[in-house]
Structures
1.
Amino acid sequence: EDQVTQSPEALRLQEGESSSLNCSYTVSGLRGLFWYRQDPGKGPEFLFTLYSAGEEKEKERLKATLTKKESFLHITAPKPEDSATYLCAVGRGSNYKLTFGKGTLLTVNP
Amino acid sequence: DVKVTQSSRYLVKRTGEKVFLECVQDMDHENMFWYRQDPGLGLRLIYFSYDVKMKEKGDIPEGYSVSREKKERFSLILESASTNQTSMYLCASSEGINSPLHFGNGTRLTVT
C-alpha cells in the first residue's frame, strides 16, 4: 500500500526565516511526486512534479527536491503570503490515483 | 488557465436525501476525479474517470456513484446521504496520467 507521511504537521516561521518541509513516501514504482499548496476555503493548487531521485525544481521562494525515500520543500526567506497548507502526493506506475499526505500547515508571521 | 467549477460552495442536506454534486472543467481534459477532504484524514479518492465511458472506484466508493455523460462534466451522487458523508468534496481534472491535477474550490456538504 502506498504511504505518504508529511512532517511537521504545523510549522510557524518568522518572515525571512528559511526552513524545509518533509514528505516521506513508500511506493512501488514511483511515476511522480507532486507538491500542492492549499489556501483556506480553496482547492489545492499545483506547484511541482518531480519524477526521479536527484531532480530539483524551483519557483520563486520554493525549491523541491527528491530522493528515493523522501522529498523536501525548501522555503527561502518566506513571506506572510506563503502561509498555506502544503500537500505532497505520489503516483504509482500506470495507476491514475494519487495518494496524498495529510499536509503541513505553514504560518509565516510578519 | 484551467478552470474547474463546482456548482455549489455550500450544501446542507438531510439524512436519506439523494444528493448531486456537479463539476465542470473547461480544458477538454480526459481525466476527472472526486476526492473528499477531512481533518486528520487528508484527501481520499472516491471515484475517477479516465474516459467519458470509463469510471473506476477509488479508495472510498461506498455510498457514492458517479456520472459522466459529457467529457467536461463529472457528477458525484450520494444515493442516500448519511451524516458520515459530511465533508469537503473536491473535484479535479487532468490532461494525462502524469499531468498535475487541477482542483475546483470544493463543495462543503453538511448532512443533518
2.
Amino acid sequence: SQQGEEDPQALSIQEGENATMNCSYKTSINNLQWYRQNSGRGLVHLILIRSNEREKHSGRLRVTLDTSKKSSSLLITASRAADTASYFCATVPYPGYSTLTFGKGTMLLVSP
Amino acid sequence: DVKVTQSSRYLVKRTGEKVFLECVQDMDHENMFWYRQDPGLGLRLIYFSYDVKMKEKGDIPEGYSVSREKKERFSLILESASTNQTSMYLCATTFGRVSGNQPQHFGDGTRLSIL
C-alpha cells in the first residue's frame, strides 16, 4: 500500500536554482527516508529523519519533517545538471518495523 | 561501500517460463528485499528475508517465490512468467535486525521483459 505521496510529480528548473519536493503521508511514522534514482539505475539513500527530528542537512540537501501535518520536504540548493533524477520518500510506521513504503516519486530535471 | 549485484541488467523471457533473478551482497547484511517498479506505481515490495531460509511476503507476492539458502544471496523466482510481470526488479539490503531504522542499499535493477 502506498504511504508517501510526493508532490510535484515532475519539476523542471535551471542550474543554480533551488528545488523543493514534498512528501505527504497518511499514518504516523517512526522515520522517513529520501532516496534518489538516476535513470535506469537503483535507488541511492540520501537522508533518514526520525519522527522526533524536525530538520536534517547533508551537503546541499535539507530535509524537514512536520509530523503534525504529516509531511516532509526535500530541498536541493544550487541545483546541478547531475541532480537530474527521480526522488522518492519512504516511511517506516513504527519502531521494529522491517519494511519501507515508498511513494511514487518526483522527477526532477535540471537544465544547464 | 555496500555492493549489491543483480545478475542481469536486461532479461527477455517467454510466457510460461520459470525465471530466476539473482541478487548477491557483499556486506553480510541480514535483510534482503525484492521490489518491482512500474511507471505510475512506484516501488512495491514483493518479498523480503531477514535471515537464511526465512522469508516474508510483501505487498504483491502472488506469482513469485523466493529462496535464501546463503546469507549473501537472495533469489526471486517467477514460477510461470506472464506478460504482466514485465517490470524493473530491484534488490535491496539493510544491516541489522531492525531494518526499518537503516538505509536500504539497492542494486542497479533487472529490466525483465516477458514476451
3.
Amino acid sequence: EIVLTQSPGTLSLSPGEVATLSCRASQRISNSYLAWYQQRPGQAPRLVIHSTSNRAAGIPDRFSGSGSGTDFTLTIIRLEPEDFAVYYCQQYGSSPPWTFGQGTKVEIK
Amino acid sequence: QVQLQESGPGLVKASGTLSLTCGVSGASISSNNWWSWVRQPPGKALEWIGEIMHTGATNYNPSLKSRVIISVDKSKNQFSLNLRSVTAADTAVYYCARADPTISGVIIYGMDVWGQGTTVTVSS
C-alpha cells in the first residue's frame, strides 16, 4: 500500500499570496497518476487536479500541479477567498488501495 | 449533468450492517468507469473504501475487505455498499463517487463527480 504524506499540515496565508502544498509517496506512483481534491467545510471533495498536472473541468488556471515519482506539488497562485479549504492528494498507482493523504488545510492568516 | 445521491439509515447499531445506496442520474451505471465509496470520520481524512464496475468487478481496501461488499444494480442505475460488523470506528460521512471516467477520449484518473455525502453513526 502506498502511503501519502502531505505537508505542511496547515498553511496560513493571506488572499493574493501563493500556496505550495506537498504530497510525498512512500513509493513511486506509476504513470504519475496523482490527483488533488479541495474540500470546503461541510461539502464533498471536488477534483482539482488529475494525473499530476491536469486541471479538472471548471478549475481556474491559478491552480497547477507538478511532480513525478514520489514527490508532487499543488500550487495555488493569487489565493482567492474561496480557495481556503482542505486539500487532499490521492494516488492511482499500480494497484489498489487508492490511498489519500492526510490533508493540508489552507487557512486565512 | 451527472449527479450521485447517497441514501440509507443514518444510525446503525454496533455489530450490525451498514447499508447505503448511491443513485446515479445523468449517466448510465454501465458507463466505462468505476463507481466508488469513500468515507470520512469526523475531523479526519478521506478513506477509500472500494469500487465497482458495471461488470461486477470490484476492488476493496484491504483494511475493510473482510467486511465490505459493493454491488451494482443496473436495472435501478445504482450501486450499493454493505459493511458488516460495524463499530464506533465506522462512524463517518460516506460518499459515493464516479472514478476514472473517459471524457473526450481522455481517462480522468480521479473522482470527478461526488454525492453530497451521508452521515452514518454507529450506536452502542
